[in-house]
Amino acid sequence: MTATTEPMPEAEIRCAGTRKDGSPCGVDPDLLLEDDEQPGVIHWCFNHHPAYEAERELARSRGGHSKAAKDRRSGSRFLTTHDLGDLETPADALRWSQVIAGSVVTGKLGSNAAAVALKALEAWVKAHEAVDLEARLAELETRVERTTRGGMV
Ligand SMILES: [Zn+2]
Predict the structure, then answer these.
(1) Closest Cα partner for 122 from 146, 99, 93, 102?
(2) Three-state SS for 18?
(3) Distance of alpha carbon 33 from its chain centroid, rounded?
(4) Where are the domains of the chain?
(5) Sequence-ordered alpha helix ranges (H) in the chain
(6) Using an 8 Å Cβ cutoff, are 111 and 104 in contact?
(7) Fewest Cβ atoms nearer than 10 Å: which of 23, 70, 131, 153?
(8) Could you report the per-residue pLDDT of 117-138, keeping only the tens digit for each?
(9) Separation of 73 CA from ligand 1 center, angstroms?
């Protein structure tokens, strides 16, 4: 049981980062992290979190004008959504945690980034469990209702 702060209205929470083409980053709100300086006000996905900007810059300058793929080969310590895939089901969440853990062990991912990623993943799992539980309860209620109404012999 964790007593966290009030959940923010979902529509207002968005990654403050932008994509390469300048459009706003559309990362799932469940995966957003709070800004170090202004928690609760500014949110980032772990690709855009400024805490990792220096590390990303380093990886970029090391490789000249490199593309993402080249960055990865030349030692960038970040995963991409390509490494992780979608996060829609508990099976996806399990795969994410495996990929993240494996990447830390092999040195592909910095432990700071991994801690942030796992925190986001944990938040996702919690949110997903709550939704899943509600759905199961509703289904059970329906079954019980049906049984008590017409199922008795
Ligand atoms: Zn982002």
Answers:
(1) 93
(2) strand
(3) 9
(4) 79-153
(5) 53-62, 68-73, 81-84, 90-105, 111-150
(6) yes
(7) 153
(8) 888 888 888 888 888 888 888 8
(9) 22
Tokens representing residue 116 in the block: 């942030």
Tell if the pTM clears 0.85, that is, is over it. no
Q: Two tokens at 24?
A: 């706003």
CB-based neighbours (< 5 A) of ligand 1, an ion: 15, 17, 25, 27, 45, 48
Distance CA 29, CA 51 (A): 19
Dihedral sign computed on CA atoms, order 83, 87, 91, 96? positive
Distance, CA of 77 to CA of 106 (rounded, Å): 10
Give dist(CA 21, CA 18) in Å, integer.
Answer: 8
Residue type at 141 in one-letter notation? E
Residues constituting the chain: 153
